[in-house]
Design the sequence.
């Protein structure tokens, strides 16, 4: 009888995993290395934050299981690239959140490119960190319900090595070391 229970449990586990999809996400290094600013009022101090760690926490907190950070050598059904943008209009007290998502499927093909937008009317004076995290959570939940849950199940996989290709394909600014700024009169 116990052998039957173990076999049944193993088959149940395998069948549950076969219906779930695995995703890998990629957040560009730019969002980890450089800061972004939001000004709460015309005369207020700038609030400086890094979008990469905040967005990564939101992904880990808000998305269901089967989502992991892009790792070379790891296979998944889809890879999605995230590019966040936050803007606060202090005259209207509106916080805008935008998330550009590129979804790559098997054979390293761009399946879809989507922009998700959310706005909240709020004052961010003392709780800027709280409201920015709240915007990220809502953007990720909207990404999950509207896009990721509707992707077709495919038997082919995409390798995490493709993430380095996505990262390197972004245009790099080339600064000429011999450039001299023009003299202003």
Sequence:
């Amino acid at each position: 009888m116990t052998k039957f229970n173990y076999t049944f449990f193993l088959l149940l586990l395998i069948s549950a995993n076969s219906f779930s999809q695995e995703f890998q996400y990629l957040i560009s290094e730019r969002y980890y290395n450089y800061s972004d600013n939001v000004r709460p009022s015309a005369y207020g101090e700038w609030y400086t934050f890094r979008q990469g760690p905040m967005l990564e926490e939101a992904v880990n907190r808000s998305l269901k299981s089967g989502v992991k950070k892009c790792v070379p050598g790891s296979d998944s059904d889809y890879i999605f690239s995230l590019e966040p943008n936050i803007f606060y209009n202090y005259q209207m007290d509106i916080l805008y959140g935008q998330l550009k998502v590129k979804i790559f499927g098997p054979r390293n093909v761009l399946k879809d490119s989507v922009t998700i937008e959310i706005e909240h009317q709020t004052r961010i004076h003392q709780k800027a960190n709280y409201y920015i995290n709240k915007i990220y959570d809502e953007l990720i939940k909207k990404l999950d319900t509207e896009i990721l849950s509707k992707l077709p199940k495919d038997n082919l996989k995409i390798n995490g090595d493709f993430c380095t290709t996505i990262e390197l394909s972004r245009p790099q600014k080339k600064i000429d070391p011999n450039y001299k700024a023009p003299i202003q009169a």
Q: What stands out?
A: The chain has one domain: 22-165. Residues 22-165 form a domain with the Rossmann fold fold (CATH 3.40.50.10610). The chain has five helices and nine strands. The two ends are 92 Å apart (CA to CA).
